[in-house]
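User: Structure please.
Assistant: Input sequence and predicted structure:
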Amino acid sequence: MTTSLLDRLAALSATATREDAPAPSCEVLADRPDGTVVRSGRTVAKAHAPDGDPRALAARLRIAAHPLLHGILLPPLPVTAPDGYLTLTEEGRALTRWPYGSPAPPDDPDAAPWEDTARLLARLHRVDLRQLPGPVPPMRGPAKAARALARLRTAPVPSNGRASGHHAPLTAAGPLPAAAAAVERAWATLPPWARGEAPPPRTGTLCHGDLHLGQLIRHPAGDGPWLLIDIDDLGRGDGAWDLARPAAWFATGLLAPDLWTRFLAAYRAAGGPVVGPDGDPWPDLDLPARTLTVQTAALAIAKAATADRSLDEAETAFVDACARMTSPPQQLAPTGPGVG
């Protein structure tokens, strides 16, 4: 992150309780290539991905601010009066402003608000697209999956399972190239729409597009209701995508059956339209869950190669799931108690 960008974000997020009071100190909450977030007091400012589409983001911001999404999505704060929700840097990078909220525990699935998350998704999926300010852009989940594969293909070549630092496709021998090959084989089994190469067959649902535990906050911070954040991938598409990451965690053994059952039951009880009110949900969830499994494994391998390390246990579980997708019985969905 450049100093000039930090200065812009700090100025955008700075608030004061009195006109003569000093602005709160600036705290960097996240600094990644696809987004930087800075907090000052009760406000945060975000620099979105440099290659993002500001017009599509502006449409997503209008949706997040719409009354139909109140109590579901964290609404943006204006940055230009009276209702402009983004500004651009000299380089054309979009900046936005948001209320600060307290996040969900990122590394404690047992303490995560699974039922609240499911109810928020059910409400999101029931929003009538025809009543939203349009045009509603497409959900970007499949595009992110394709980006993960592109990142895998340009990761450093490892030597004996460790990264060599040479930026070229993962084609050398060793554990990481073998894992990358398993991911590529699983990717090849997915239909074009799941790889971001064609429109999805179902596009009638408002989707978050990148649902995970890091996309939840309490606002007001501390004891406020849970809300969904990060609308960069929001849009019309197949709502099963939003259930797919928890489903993939369950299928790979990283999410306990009782947590998955609680999540699914809460979604159904809240009238979530993506899966039926009872019975086996996997006919609707299997393909998106496979895609999110491949995406997660691809990113894990790319990060491991770049960091010159081996895969950890959770990352290995996703790679193993990719291998199962291309070996008889070519199964991802689990069987037995907890499936439905």
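The first strand starts at residue 26 and ends at 32.
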